[in-house]
Amino acid sequence: MTPAKLCSALVLGATGLVGSTLVAKLKNDPRYRQITCLVRASAGLASANCREVITDFSRLQHYGEYFQVSHVYVCLGTTIKQAGSKKASRDVDFELVYQAAQLAAMHQALSFVWISSVGADARSRSFYLRTKGELEEAIFALDGLNRPAPVRPSLLLGERKEFRLAERLAAMFAPIYSPLLRGRLAKYRPVGAETVAEQMIGLQHFG
């Protein structure tokens, strides 16, 4: 097994709300010697123990060498409005994440953690939740993938680069309705990006 002090990580979606928080935590985690971020364009993430790799995500299969790491973190995600269509949204939320899982399996990463969603269900009427559920089923059925683990957050709290009115309003009223979500409903409480990033690291295998 890979010694903890020699762990390496690959991050996809490193510039998003959770991804950027995750990268900051990984940089300061003494168990990691190297973090690699696949990014569409330079985002100023590079440091002594972190490198950026400018990536054409339409050709992700050509970046397999970067999946030769201890841990793979996938924070990719979009919305129909942001992507422009259901197909374009699925290309990110399902196809890219599944390709990453395939590459992680091919190169025998020790573990694979990705962001799903509370309520993910392949039989859901919601396109978003159905896509997330179908992805979970596909990844868990993938041969050779070590320790696949989804994180299923509810509404994410934090400052996004893009403005999302519904999320902004939900976040504003979160202090009012969150305490009412108890028991089985507790999983629907809004959660901070930092908490999600910590959950992702906690699911990894350090040997």
TrEMBL record:
InterPro entries cross-referenced by the UniProt entry: Epimerase_deHydtase, NAD(P)-bd_dom_sf
Keywords associated with the record: Membrane
Keyword Disulfide bond attached: no
Domain NAD-dependent epimerase/dehydratase, chain residue ranges per copy: 9-119
GO cellular component, one term: membrane
Superkingdom to which the source organism belongs: Bacteria
Pfam families recorded: Epimerase
Subcellular location: Membrane
Primary localisation category: membrane
UniProt keyword Membrane present: yes
Protein name: Oxidoreductase
Biological source species: Bowmanella pacifica
